[in-house]
Amino acid sequence: MKKIIWAVLGIALLWIIADFSYGIIQEKQAQKQAEEQTQQIKEEEQADLEEGNNAGQLAYDFEAEDMDGNAVKLSDYRGKKVFLNFWASWCPPCKIEMPHLKAFSEEQEDVVVLGVNVTTSETNLDNVTEFLNTYDIGYTNLYGSQKMFNLYRVQSLPTSYIIGKDGVIHERIVGPVTQDGLTEKFAAID
Q1: Are 171 and 55 in contact (CB under 8 A)?
Q2: In this structure, are 76 and 130 located in the same domain?
Q3: Which of 46, 118, 168, 171 could form a disulfide with 88 if both were Cys (CB 3.0 to 4.6 A apart)?
Q4: Rounded to an integer, what distance in angstroms lies between the CA atom of residue 33 and that of residue 27?
Q5: Averaged pLDDT, 118-146
Q6: 150-162 tens-digit pLDDT
Q7: What count of other Cβ atoms lies within 10 Å of the Cβ of residue 180?
Q8: Residues of the domain holding 134
């Protein structure tokens, strides 16, 4: 009789363990399915977004050459927050904000600072390199094209954009920025 009771208890214990394990597996599968559906919804929403230069729009993608001759695309930085800054070496407000951008780029690990020189306004391209060296700028800077300036409504300098990890514009800023102001603005977005 004791053997039968132990056998029944053993079977019941195995049943409980199997049922518990099956529940955990089902829960993990449901969680994975929910994550996949959420990702699919995000991708569909992003596909529906219109490209543009206003808050809430997907930032226009572009390709430009960096100061070392490498091709760089804005979309290369998807998955990271981006501060896109249009500037020129002759621009007094650009000179004012440059130390702030340098400090901001050095303190931030999750934000890419991407400078774009308004090349069409420069009298000599050597001024661009000299300007970056004067301020000891280490973040990526590109030679911009007239098409880029038109796409991003660059009418006065500096003009900048705060872009989220998903490539969506959060804000357009005309005029110089400060390190503290940027830190605050980027802390407020995902």
Answers
A1: yes
A2: yes
A3: 118
A4: 10
A5: 96
A6: 999 999 999 999 9
A7: 11
A8: 51-187
**7 and 56 both lie in a single domain:** no
Query: 10 is written with which tokens?
Result: 């053993």
pLDDT, tens digit (0-9, with 9 covering 90-100), for 160-178: 999 999 999 999 999 999 9
Is the separation of the CB atoms in 144 and 118 below 8 Å?
yes
pTM for the full predicted model: 0.76
pLDDT in tens, 52-92: 999 999 999 999 999 999 999 999 999 999 999 999 999 99
CATH for 91: 3.40.30.10
**140 shares a domain with 111:** yes
- Are 105 and 114 within 8 A, CB to CB? no
For the chain, percent of residues with pLDDT exceeding 70: 84
Res 89: pLDDT: 97
Cα–Cα distance between 78 and 49 in angstroms, integer? 15
Same domain, 143 and 157: yes
Rounded distance between C-alpha atoms, residue 132 and residue 118, angstroms: 13
- Asked if residues 160 and 173 have their Cβ atoms less than 8 Å apart, the reply is yes
Residue with tokens 């661009």, as numbered in its chain: 128
Query: Which is it for strands 71-73 and 63-66: parallel, antiparallel or unpaired?
Result: antiparallel
Q: Are 96 and 178 in contact (CB under 8 A)?
A: no
Specify the residue for token string 């690990």. 109
